[in-house]
Amino acid sequence: MKVLSLVIAATLSMAQALSASSTSPALTPEVDVGAAYDASTFPIAPEDLVIRAKQIMGPDISVGTKDDGACLADDFIFCAAVVGPLPRDEYLDALDSFKLDESFDIDPNYFAWNVDPLQTNRVWFMGRSVAKHTGTFVGVEATGKELVMPPQQFHLDFNEEGLVKEIGFYTVDRQQGNTGGLGGAFGYFYGVGKPLPIPEAKPFKPSFRFRTLQLVGAMGKKLSGGKKKQ
């Protein structure tokens, strides 16, 4: 109820401010972030939580892969757009088998860190990773190729002790980069020419049914347009 009240208050405040001026288009209402943070009962302050998130993603911890999982809560899960939810041990085993940092020189290019005002134990941030293929990966020797991942949106959820409860990420623009719109491990497999043999690990391709619906819709639009001209 507190969150709903904050949204309503922010909307009313915005509407009142805009009513004083008829020369500018109305702006979309926003959450009063400061008020939402003040109303939060989560014990870690937003600025401290962002610092904690940057530590988790940093080279000394690397989301549990460099600290033997000490940063991960017992109920931790990994959940991305396709893979997951994976529990703690399965997640660590999967990353250990890839060893991406032994095969690639990776610059994650993280930015836009912020705490979700409506879920104040969650930190959102984005990344535009670039990776140079410097070592053998899935049988492919180093090529020196630069892999450019599409922009990805990440989130980290924390418990009250500052341990990670959940991590996930999602491609937000599959038209960018040179990995077929694929992020995460799938992007690396595809980038070196060894995509996993499943549809989810390959560039998006509309299903036959979806293509058929698009064709039918286009034909219907063309026919209706022709009737109007007559």
Description:
The longest helix is centred in the last third of the chain and has 22 residues, at 208-229. The strands form two sheets. The chain has a six-stranded mixed β-sheet with strand order 2-1-9-8-5-4. It has a three-stranded antiparallel β-sheet with strand order 3-6-7. The mean pLDDT is 90. A hairpin with a 6-residue loop joins strand 4 and strand 5. The chain starts with a helix and ends with a helix. The chain is built from seven helices and nine strands. It is globular and about 60 Å long. With 230 residues, the chain is an alpha+beta fold.
Give the helix/strand layout.
Blueprint: H1 2-19, H2 33-39, H3 46-57, E1 72-78, E2 86-87, H4 88-98, H5 100-103, E3 104-107, E4 110-115, E5 122-127, E6 130-133, E7 146-148, E8 152-158, E9 164-171, H6 184-191, H7 208-229
Parallel strand pairs: 1-9
Antiparallel strand pairs: 1-2, 3-6, 4-5, 5-8, 6-7, 8-9
Name its key features:
single chain, alpha+beta, 7 helices
| pLDDT < 50 stretches | none
Order of helical and strand elements: HHHEEHHEEEEEEEHH
- Measured between the Cα atoms of the first and last residue, the distance is 56 Å
Radius of gyration: 23 Å
Biggest β-sheet description? 6 strands, mixed
Strand order of the largest sheet: 2-1-9-8-5-4
